[in-house]
Design brief:
With 477 residues, the protein is of the alpha/beta class. 39% of the residues lie in helices and 19% in strands. The chain folds into 2 domains: 266 residues, Aldehyde Dehydrogenase, Chain A, domain 1, CATH 3.40.605.10; 191 residues, Aldehyde Dehydrogenase, Chain A, domain 2. It has 15 helices and 18 strands. The longest helix is centred in the first third of the chain and has 21 residues. It binds nicotinamide-adenine-dinucleotide (NAD). Belongs to the aldehyde dehydrogenase family.
Amino acid sequence: MPELTLPLVAGSSLAVRDTYDNVDPADGSVLGQVARGGAEEVDEAVRAAAQAQPAWAATPTEQRADALTRLADLVDRDREQLAHTESQDTGKPLSQARADATVAARYFRYYGRVVEAAYGDTIPLGPDTHVYTRREPYGVVGSIVAWNYPLQLASRSIAAATATGNAVVLKPADETPRTAVALAALAMEAGLPAGVVNVVPGLGAEAGAALTAHPQVAHLGFVGSTQTGRQVAHAAAERVVPAVLELGGKSAHVVFPDADLDAAAEAITRSILQNAGQTCSAGSRLVVHEDIRAELVAAVAERFGATTLGPGLDDPDLGPLVSRRQQDRVRGYVEGVASGEVVVGGTAPPQDGDLAAGAFWLPTLVDGVDPRDPIAQEEVFGPVLVTLPFEDEAQALELANGTAYGLIAALWTRDLSRAHRLAGALEAGQVFVNTFGAGGGVELPFGGVKASGYGREKGVEALAGFTHTKTVVVRLG
Ligand code: NAD
């Protein structure tokens, strides 16, 4: 049994009052117990953060940057262990968990570097006045993250928030607390003062809600469902604190007949099967021109059919979904589809086979669905791709923009004018042309429009998100 996951609050003397099971999604077994933090643990963590933050903010930027660089080195040092834990907790293939750990280290290294080049402006009001702006941290920031990329999500908010002089209290997802707790321990080993990074595991309705309601939390970051995001936004509005919401999407690949279909088929497959489709930016809709629809559907279906499934630690192409609950959700969408044709998949693996005890789902392609069908509108969060055929550019755009979401989109065409025209017209926070994703995406501002949320994480832009501008006006002479 792995050790108990304790609330990581600096100097905490709180006894663990309650626990819940940490379940392995590959076979349903119990991996261990997680401390069930609640309002009291959150309060203690926020107090520790509030106490540590002023001195941390006053620490010279170079020293904060050095500490983040050391943390990056420690994440690299422990990469294999972190990847193993992440793979077991989430079910994701080991090589994907290794890539996540690499990206996590990159966040600390990147923000350690760029924060030293972040400064305010001077504003030329006239010879008698000196005006300048300062970027100031909010103080204690609360971060609530999802179970799909636990280590990456924790790292991206902790790195940018602490680089800019904030202290963080992070609530990991109920299902996947272990790498976030390990990260908090590494932060202390790297020399970040006690109280600057705090992790309180627990359930959303308890620890999560307590964090959003805490009067000393001055900024809220959230990654998860639109439904919970709305609650977080309400809590932020009650206390008039800013919130950054990253709420997933229903992202489209738009493929024209002049595209490199091989490259498109490869990227489309990868973008919906990575992490078993449980990626906010998954390419879950294929908006495809009628002339190439049959060819592209066959190419993607062939790749789906050749996919290997198994426990994440065996490093297959596709691991289980994060939980039985998530599997039921995917089943509900696929079995409820009232239009189109299931070309491949459509079920869980055979119930008399090796994978029956896990939360697996076969890669599924449903061709030609009605764009109004829930499977074409809502976030399924599983390895499920739907195709929506079009005949001209206007229809392609209408389909691509035709959901409540607006996270990312991809265009596949060799026509440069069309690519730029549509990149401007697509409702999304990121648009990729003849590719999908780019490295770990650390440098690229990320976030959505419409129901995908607001605010941006990643890139230099996140430094602005975790600070507010103070304008100082000095009368000269
Ligand atoms: P969720 O929104 O309920 O959970 C996300 C995080 O919010 C978790 O840490 C959870 O503990 C916390 N939370 C839950 N209730 C809360 C509350 N009242 N106050 C504060 N925090 C709270 O997501 P879920 O139920 O685990 O997943 C459901 C669906 O959400 C998925 O099927 C998927 O469509 C979507 N989702 C999106 C993303 C994304 O990357 N944008 C990630 C995970 C899930």
